[in-house]
Amino acid sequence: MPKVVFELDSTKSFTEQAIVGHNRWHPDIPAQVHVKPGDSFRVHCREWFDGAIHNDDSADDILNAPLAGVHVLSGPIAVEGAEPGDLLIVDILDIGPIPQEDSGPLSGQGWGYTGVFATRNGGGFLTEQFPDAYKVIWDFTGGVATSRHIPGVSFVGIQHPGLMGTAPSAELLARWNAREQALIDTNPTRVPPLALPPLPDSAILGSIPPGADFDRIAGEAARTAPPRENGGNQDIKNFTKGTRVFYPVFVDGANLSMGDLHFSQGDGEITFCGAIEIGGFMDLHVDLIKGGMATYGVGENAIFMPGITDPQYSQWLAFSGTSVTLGGEQRYLDSHLSYQRACLHAIDYLTSFGYSDIQAYMILGAAPIEGRLSGVVDIPNSCSTVYIPTAIFDFDVRPGAGGPHRIDPGMGVPHSPA
Ligand code: ZN
User: Fold this and answer.
1) What pLDDT, in 10s, does the model give residues 92-130?
2) Longest dimension (CA), the chain
3) Ion ligand 1 — residues with CB < 5 Å
4) What is the pTM of this model?
5) For 167-207, what is each residue's pLDDT tens digit?
6) Between the chain's N and C termini, which has fewer beta carbons within 10 Å?
7) CA of 71 to the centre of ligand 1 (A)
8) 4-305 is classed in which CATH architecture?
């Protein structure tokens, strides 16, 4: 096992640890760990809500989730010799849930959760259809996820970090804040909001002590929810073991951070809160390509080679959607809308087997479904598709002359009205 450079004690909160991470992006958050090119090391990561979500049958904790405090990230990790313009090579050597006895209180100790936020907390991809808070608990046995809230479904975990990235430069951070505020200004009272401006409340900034510096950084630092040029919360389910990522370097040392581990996820993380959320560990190897951003024309976005542990599914049932609203209005090549329609078609289909619509939505968020932009040029309709592996169901989910097998939906999905 590589040396643990960022160690978390599962019995303590994120801010009570010997080494404190952060939950905002800012170039002035100091590195907590120093490594060299060629080093391999282990990092512990806390689940993104730092233990606020519990293994029970109520969605009240999702309804009241402490949103200002996300995502709790491990790092920053400075890589010796890294300078702006370099590419930082990050290999994911291994990744998994919390290395500890199962049945513990923290997500990752043998279990994880998928939630849907109430609309006022950001909702989810289908918040018009699902405006309340919902939660599903998944149990892990032999690397396979099952849920007491969704009978008849099981799948192999594809563990990956939802969030990993390098620190922005001051110039890049200023650009993020300016463009996101400009978007907010187009409709400042929208629910859910168009973007999340800097929020000093609940900011965790590593080892920076309280004082004027802390207040300045907390007032400028970017929230961690959106993916940006530094990688960040990209929620790419294929960042499994064996992944190699090439991150642009914007500050000396690169200042790499990571967190928001997932046991599994469907493309799009459509439930938003989120995939199957867990705490756990990552073993990483880092190296540098000096001047690599210009050499490879990478510009300001991470590139990557996906992991080598994709689940092996050979048969899929796929659903398509076009850019026409549920009300019948034609939209122009709107791929967001066509993916929503594809997902809604998949949900309608699964309810014919006895699932509730929220059970079907949770399956799409948590299981390793594939989402694709199948056509983006055929005016006026974009065509998006969502592929569901048939083998995740313990019954035949294909259409047939005999009609759908009816499942017993069981206790169903815990639900807390907003
Ligand atoms: Zn997540």
Assistant:
1) 999 999 866 656 789 999 999 999 999 999 899 999 999
2) 70
3) 162, 260, 274
4) 0.96
5) 999 999 999 999 999 999 999 999 989 999 999 999 999 99
6) N
7) 9
8) Sandwich (2.60)
